[in-house]
Write a structure and sequence with these properties.
Subunit structure: Homotetramer, a dimer of dimers. One homotetramer interacts with 1 SecA dimer.
CATH class: Alpha Beta
GO cellular component, one term: cytoplasm
CATH architecture: Roll
GO biological process, one term: protein folding
Distance between the termini: 29 Å
Structural class: alpha+beta
Number of domains: 1
Helix content: 25-40%
Strand order of the largest sheet: 1-4-3-2
CATH superfamily: SecB-like
Keywords: Chaperone, Cytoplasm, Protein transport, Translocation, Transport
CATH topology: Bacterial Protein-export protein SecB
Strand content: 35-45%
Order of helices and strands: EEEEHH
Organism: Candidatus Dechloromonas phosphorivorans
Number of helices: 2
Largest sheet: 4 strands, antiparallel
Length: 154
């Protein structure tokens, strides 16, 4: 195999694409002593932005509530630009759905913890995530659907 045919997987840039912090009931919420319930949602998206260049965004949304009252909401879109060359097409989607989010997650975790702390609350430390299991579950759900939708990377 020639040098220019070697598979390439590299990080071009890591960045915060979007960051939002909301504390809708401040300052009164800071007088509450009850511990809030924390809900965490994760999502990933990927798209081609050039020949062999992909943008992947890991979105993490952390919502804290006391009963039905919102305490805070933090959402981050941690982005990355990745170079993927000389990789078979069937391996690109798993790289974008598993490998790239694994790289982005520590940065998103730090940004969430920092944003929650700056909003005046105890830091939230996100537990490790198995992106491979999430990807495999999504594939199984699509295969079980009555009309499976094709998984495509834009």
């Amino acid at each position: 195999m020639e040098q220019n045919e070697q598979p390439v997987f590299g990080i071009e840039k890591l960045y915060v694409k979007d960051l939002s912090v909301e504390v809708p009931h401040a300052p009164e919420i800071f007088l509450e002593r009850e511990a809030p319930q924390i809900e965490i949602q994760l999502g990933t998206s990927g798209r081609a932005i050039g020949e062999g260049v992909y943008e992947v965004v890991l979105t993490v949304t952390v919502t804290a509530k006391m009963q039905e009252k919102a305490v805070f909401l933090v959402e981050i879109g941690q982005g990355g630009i990745f170079r993927i060359l000389n990789v078979p097409n069937e391996q690109i989607e798993p790289l974008i759905a598993v490998a790239c989010p694994n790289i982005l997650f520590p940065y998103a975790r730090e940004a969430v913890s920092d944003a929650v702390t700056r909003a005046g609350f105890a830091p939230i430390v996100l537990q490790p995530v198995n992106f491979e299991a999430m990807y495999m579950q999504r594939l199984q759900e699509q295969a079980a659907a009555p009309h499976p939708t094709e998984v495509t990377i834009q």
